[in-house]
Write a structure and sequence with these properties.
This protein has 70 residues and is mainly β. The chain has one domain: Beta Barrel (OB fold (Dihydrolipoamide Acetyltransferase, E2P)). The chain is built from no helices and five strands. It has a five-stranded antiparallel beta sheet with strand order 3-2-1-4-5, with no helix packed on it. β4 and β5 form a beta hairpin. It starts with a strand and ends with a strand. The relative contact order is 0.30. InterPro entries: Cold_shock_CspA, CSD, CSP_DNA-bd, NA-bd_OB-fold. Keywords: Cytoplasm. It comes from Bradyrhizobium jicamae. One of its GO terms (molecular function) is nucleic acid binding. This is CSD domain-containing protein.
């Protein structure tokens, strides 16, 4: 499980990017489908935890199982 901060979120396109606290890792793409039920968007600066996987469509790293931290 990784942790980081939301860099940006585009509510019209339902995606954004997360800056991983592990500075050796690149910023991670986050699609709205990775958010828990009832969460419609993230806000820049939100602290989140997340898993990562390689996207079958793009071959790039993306966030999964995103949770907003208190």
């Amino acid at each position: 499980m990784n942790q980081g901060r939301v860099l940006n979120w585009n509510p019209d396109r339902f995606f954004g990017f997360i800056r991983n606290d592990n500075e050796r890792e690149a910023d991670v793409f986050c699609h709205g489908s990775a958010l828990p039920r009832g969460v419609d968007e993230l806000k820049p600066g939100d602290r989140v935890s997340f898993d990562t996987e390689i996207s079958k469509r793009t071959g790039k790293m993306q966030a999964t199982n995103v949770r907003v931290l208190p």
